[in-house]
Amino acid sequence: LTRRAPNGTEPGIAERWEVSPDGRRYVFHLREAYWSDGTPLTAADFEFAWKRVLDPATGSPYASLLFFLRGAAEYHGADRRLAPARLQALREAVGVRAVDSRTLEVELAAPAPFFPELASTFPYLPVPRHKVSADPEGWWAGEGRLASNGPFRLEERGRGRLVLVKNELYWDRRSVALQRVVFSMISDPGEALSAYEAGDIDAAMPRQLPLAEVPRLLSQGQARQAPLLATYYLVFNTTRPPFHDPRVRRAFSLAIDRRALVEGVLQGLPRPALALVPPGIVNPASGRDFRDEGGDYLRDADVAAARSLLAAAGYPEGRGFPRVTVLFNTEGEQREIMLALQEMWREHLGVEVQLVGEDWQGYRERREAGDFHLARVAWIGEYADPAAFLSLFRGDDPRNFGRWRSAVYDELLARAQASDAQGPRLDALHRAEALLLEESALAPLYFYVQFWLQRDTVEGLFVDLQGNAFFRSVRIVAPASPGPGKGAGAGG
After folding, report:
1. CA nearest 231: which of 198, 280, 189?
2. CA atoms of 370 and 372, how far apart (whole Å)
3. Would you call 262 helix, strand, or coil by DSSP?
4. What pairing do the DSSP bridges indicate for beta strands 442-454 and 203-204?
5. What does each C-alpha distance from 299 to 273, 289, 350, 437, 443 come to in angstroms?
6. Where do the DSSP E strands lie in 346-468?
7. Tens digit of pLDDT for each residue in 310-368?
8. Which residues of the chain have pLDDT under 70?
């Protein structure tokens, strides 16, 4: 419906929309558009796609992003054993309806001033209803089978690379200059840098640079830098002793020297985090950044307070402290970060922790099952609003990996969601964040900054606050040097 752009969210398939005075009803008017196989794209494709994400049988891990719709949470949370007629009634009650082929009506459970931006995220994208209905399991697989509606379509999906070609049926095709984009699927940052310096690729995407090389690349003008709406934090499993005790959680958080971590392990590049919500979210009422308004809720490396809290919890100088595990994924610089934290807790608290490194799949499975005492989490906000982060700790949210519960916190989030005035809404969110840090449901470590490589001959590449790169406006203004540029490096 909408798309990300350098100046914010702009119309996409929806060329315009109206919002009701109470902020709960949107009517999107769609432009004439087609799937890449020539089939018209209609409002029914959006309704079908959203309800497919919410269908409890689909099992989408991102269904909660659609809970802003009226009746969405109820439908997604329904027991699959309900009578088919009852499930169908819940499905029909979800607040999205194709009025006709070019009009989509959306009813929200509560006002969400960021909804046009939210509508640009991938759970809100349409899917080709005609393809999915014909082959629900394999509609997307195989070259030539995937119907898309963006500036490019898939030409080749081979081992280690993707090839996209210009979609001549894209509604904004006149603004698309590139005829072909080759993505080399390079998972190793060092390999991506070597491919760039050898002239084999024209760009290496965000989070694909060896951290130790970033200062040099920035000084040489090779690397680009931009904010990333993301926070790196540790989450405590509050259902497992000793982290059921907020004093122990706070002691572990206060024992971390975030500035030393950033400067010693991360080349001084990120900003130490003393709260959850990162910079980059502007309060439209005041024009100030939400982070600046809220300030910091933690003290960095208050070792005396940390030791006092741990002693009050029954572990003076760490004596008698049980064996606990710290779960992390092993990609990139994660192990170095964990080793630094392990040493800080040993030195400052007198406790030993066991580091448990897993590959990405194993890490996710253990994290989501709650099989940890502490776990590393990195979260990128899908939309520029504090709720994109604070909702992670709502009691019923599946992304609340530490199982922390607070009725007061949930009530503050509900109050913010129900408010149609930005002042009271953001005030409730500030109070919620303060409570979250007071209870030490997490230990924030740092706010991300994103870096990528891009030749001067590549113009118009847009990277948004979520680290997504957009190629629809890219132009090559001269042959890449040294050597012919052949593609864009992409994370594996």
Report:
1. 280
2. 6
3. helix
4. antiparallel
5. 10, 20, 20, 11, 11
6. 353-358, 374-380, 442-454, 458-459, 462-463
7. 999 999 999 999 999 999 999 888 999 999 999 999 999 999 999 999 999 999 999 99
8. 142-144, 479-492
How far apart CA 119 and CA 93 sit, in angstroms, is 19
Closest to 392 (Cα-Cα) out of 231, 250, 283, 227: 231
Q: What is this structure's pTM?
A: 0.85
Is the distance from CB of 236 to CB of 442 less than 8 angstroms?
A: yes
Give the tokens for residue 230.
């993301």
Residues 6+ apart with CB under 8 A from 468: 4
- Give the tens place of pLDDT for each residue, 81-115: 889 999 999 999 999 999 999 999 999 998 888 99
Average pLDDT of the residues of the chain: 91
CA-based nearest residue to 164, from 175, 148, 188 = 148
User: Is the alpha carbon torsion for 193, 196, 201, 202 positive or negative?
Assistant: positive
What is the DSSP track for 93-156? HSSEEEEETTEEEEEBSS--TTHHHHTTSGGGS---HHHHHH-TTTTT-STTT----SSEEEEE
